Amino acid sequence: TQRTLVILKPDAVRRGLVGNILARYEAKGLAIAALEHRTIDGEMADRHYAEHVERDFYPPLRTFVTSGPLVVAVLEGDEAIEVVRGLNGATDGRKAAPGTIRGDLSMSNRENLVHGSDSPESAEREIGIWFPNL
Ligand code: ATP
């Protein structure tokens, strides 16, 4: 079994899609190992997105992820990292396949509702940042 970190970004909370999105992960068969509603500051955003802080798309992303409450979770299951990324869909909601979270619910490249860890190394790093006691 594997653990992955998922963020339901502020657009998901604002749009009232938290239940819809969590239901998809649960219905797929992933278990919720941790779940928290919280608002983060820019410093926390920088820690999470350490590999993107120098990118040109980062400043507006930083503003976006600190713009309101989000929901962060640890999901657990067989190949959870890949399974979650499949459910999330491609980064740009306009290009993401129908049936995926972004493909069904997002029209944006930035406000794309969810984040999922992209490797076992980043999952461990991100879980350590968001849930240090887990
Ligand atoms: P995530 O890591 O959030 O699951 P991802 O792996 O699909 O998404 P990354 O390339 O890691 O995408 O980018 C991280 C986040 O930065 C994206 O989810 C999106 O919100 C934002 N982002 C990425 N590329 C762009 C872009 N070209 N313009 C605007 N925002 C972007």
Automatic annotation (TrEMBL):
This protein's record includes keyword tRNA processing: no
One Pfam match: NDK
Catalytic activity annotation: a ribonucleoside 5'-diphosphate + ATP = a ribonucleoside 5'-triphosphate + ADP; a 2'-deoxyribonucleoside 5'-diphosphate + ATP = a 2'-deoxyribonucleoside 5'-triphosphate + ADP
Active site: H115
Subcellular location field: Cytoplasm
The organism's place on the tree of life at top rank: Bacteria
Keyword Transmembrane helix listed: no
Protein's recorded name: Nucleoside diphosphate kinase
Originating organism: Nocardioides dubius
Lineage of origin: Bacteria, Bacillati, Actinomycetota, Actinomycetes, Propionibacteriales
